[in-house]
Amino acid sequence: MASDLNSLNKARHFKKGLLAFAVYAVFFGLACLRPLFSNQEKLVKRAFAMRTNDPVKIDGRLEEPAWGQAQEITDFIQFQPEKGQLATFKTIARVLYNNRYLYVSFECHDAEPEKVVSRLTKRDSDLKADDSVSLFLDTFHDRRNCYFFSTNVLGTQLDGRIVENGLTTDNTWDGIWESAGQRTEFGWTAEIAIDLSSLKFKPGEGMVWGFNLGRYIPRLLESDFWAGPL
């Protein structure tokens, strides 16, 4: 019962407070990535999640009108192989929310869409052999811990937590979320819905979460991030 009440309270705060929900990008990932930044304040990007009252079907098609109204998040930067350079292919992400879910979509453009790789289907598989996208959520904005969610064209789910200031990755944590992908003429798409009841955060008005997005292209050995090594 206590858990149900906590979820209800969180939903109320989201309804009231996330109208001005700002998502600040902090490059938060594996420990080996953290030394790239000597002054994090210069690396802050900001994006906004748009509230929607319309249903969002998680099928990877991105046909809901709300996706077309949400802010486009672009300008991904390479971490590998050409650190700090613009990503080879364009990626467009968008963020929506309602009282229950945080939604994220990806449009992954590719000059050779027929070469997009998607083989893995088992939960928590290492997706480095597949084209994939990732979402990182630092829900307390402490720049020390975060949740991560990754998926491929098949909607395969990899999730977990990065803790202890980025030193430890915990793949045993399983969130409650949906994911789906689609191949397209321009490349591929992915769509994610995260049940907010599975995340820990401090409810309230004007919440700020640390946030980052990633994409991996295996045939190029390329890792791209929104908040990348500048």
Question: In brief, what are we looking at here?
Answer:
The protein is mostly beta strands.
Strand percentage lies at: 35-45%
* Rg calc: 17 Å
Task: Return the domain count.
Answer: 1
Give the N-to-C terminal Cα separation. 47 Å
Name the structural class. mainly beta
Helix content: under 10%
What is the CATH first-level class name? Mainly Beta
Number of helices: 2
Strand tally, please?
14
SSE arrangement, N to C: HEEEHEEEEEEEEEEE
Mean pLDDT: 82
Query: Architecture, according to CATH?
Result: Sandwich
CATH topology, what is it called? Immunoglobulin-like
Shape: globular
Main β-sheet description: 9 strands, mixed
Parts with pLDDT < 50 across at least 5 consecutive residues? 1-22, 26-41
Q: Would you give an account of this structure?
A:
The strands form two sheets. Strands 1, 2, 4, 7, 8, 9, 10, 13 and 14 form a nine-stranded mixed sheet that branches. This protein has one domain (2-225): Immunoglobulin-like (Sandwich), CATH 2.60.40. The protein is built from two helices and 14 strands. By secondary structure, the chain is mainly β. The longest helix is centred in the N-terminal third of the chain and has 16 residues, at 2-17.
Features:
230 residues; Immunoglobulin-like; 5-stranded mixed β-sheet; 14 strands; 9% helix; 37% strand
Secondary structure topology:
Elements: H1 2-17, E1 22-25, E2 45-48, E3 50-51, H2 65-69, E4 77-80, E5 91-97, E6 101-109, E7 132-138, E8 146-152, E9 157-163, E10 168-170, E11 177-183, E12 187-195, E13 208-217, E14 222-225
Parallel strand pairs: 1-13, 3-5
Antiparallel strand pairs: 1-2, 4-14, 5-6, 6-12, 7-8, 7-13, 8-9, 9-10, 11-12, 13-14
